[in-house]
Structure formats: structure tokens, C-alpha cells
Design brief:
The protein has about 170 residues and is mostly helical. The protein has one domain. Helices cover about 50% and strands about 0% of the residues. The chain contains 5 helices and no strands. Helix 2 packs across helix 4 and helix 2 packs across helix 5. It is globular and about 45 Å long. It starts with 11 loop residues before the first helix and ends in a 31-residue tail after the last helix.
Length: about 170
């Protein structure tokens, strides 16, 4: 996925919606075996840190991602995309957009590598990103023991030996 200039005739809301659709389509093409929500939470896990560029980072006490108050994964993806664009349109630089593009590509790459040694390492990395994204977006509690990843968001290695039908 890359950043490119857009047509001037498209409105800001259309551009944001189109970008969300493109990201979702990119996920389906590159990682069809991975649930869309897992990938979005992993992106949030990478972006939502106080060290991230504007609009996601900031001070430890008031990072940019603290402005997110949605309750769904769709609202999380919309926040990520719209915050990056609004930061760019507000003349704060391209760092927010570039970091979103980097995170989308990195998360897809982490879920696409299928060699056995890397797969085990990537499972731990992606599970950690998933949990960080869920925590920082406010979708699970920060503290408490034994957070369990629901089955549809768990890491599933790609089967290289054959194709199986799953109803």
C-alpha cells in the first residue's frame, strides 16, 4: 500500500471512506485467512503509543489516541484514517499518513510470513500488538489477569500443505 496524490474533485468524507474500503480490500487480498478485526487492532497497537507521530502520539498523559471513544472496530479504523488525513490537511505534515501506511504494510507482512521459525515469533508479536490495540482503544480493560483472545481473533498459521473447506 502506498500514499499517492488524490483527485481534487473528491470530498474529504469520500476520501476517508474510500481509504477505509481500500485498506479492507487490501487485507482481504493479502491475508484472507486472518480476521479483519485482528488486523485493525494490530495497527492500533502499533500506532497508539505516545512516541508515535501526530495525531496519534503526544505526551504520556495526553496522547493523541486518547481522543478515540468509539466502541467498534469500524469506528477504530475510521478514527485512524480520518485522524491521519485531518493532521495532514491541517498542515502538520505527512508523518501521520506515512505511519498509517507503514503500519498497514507491516501488519500484513507479519501475518503473511509462513516459515515455521518466523511464524512462531510473529504469533507472539501480533498477539502483543492485538492486545495493545484493544487496550489502548478502550475495548478491553487495562488491568486484570488473564485476558483471553477470542477465537476469531486468534493467530491461525497458513496451511501450506493443502486447501480445506471450512463451513
Amino acid at each position: 500500500m502506498t500514499i499517492s496524490r488524490c483527485l481534487p474533485s473528491i470530498s474529504s468524507s469520500q476520501l476517508i471512506t474510500r481509504t477505509e474500503t481500500d485498506i479492507t480490500a487490501f487485507f482481504k487480498i493479502r491475508t484472507p485467512h486472518v480476521h479483519h478485526d485482528r488486523l485493525v487492532y494490530c495497527i492500533a497497537g502499533m500506532l497508539f503509543a505516545h512516541t508515535s507521530p501526530d495525531p496519534f502520539g503526544g505526551t504520556k498523559s495526553k496522547p493523541g489516541y486518547a481522543n478515540f471513544d468509539g466502541e467498534s472496530v469500524a469506528s477504530l479504523l475510521r478514527f485512524i484514517v480520518s485522524a491521519a488525513y485531518f493532521s495532514y490537511w491541517g498542515l502538520k505534515g505527512r508523518e501521520g499518513l506515512e505511519s498509517v501506511v507503514y503500519c498497514v504494510n507491516r501488519v500484513v507482512m507479519l501475518h503473511s510470513i509462513t516459515t515455521s521459525v518466523l511464524e512462531v515469533d510473529n504469533k507472539y508479536v501480533t498477539d502483543e500488538l492485538l492486545l495493545n490495540g484493544m487496550k489502548r482503544s478502550g475495548h478491553i480493560e487495562w488491568y486484570g489477569g488473564g485476558v483471553k483472545i477470542v477465537p476469531w481473533l486468534q493467530f491461525h498459521p497458513e496451511n501450506q500443505l493443502g486447501v480445506y473447506f471450512t463451513p
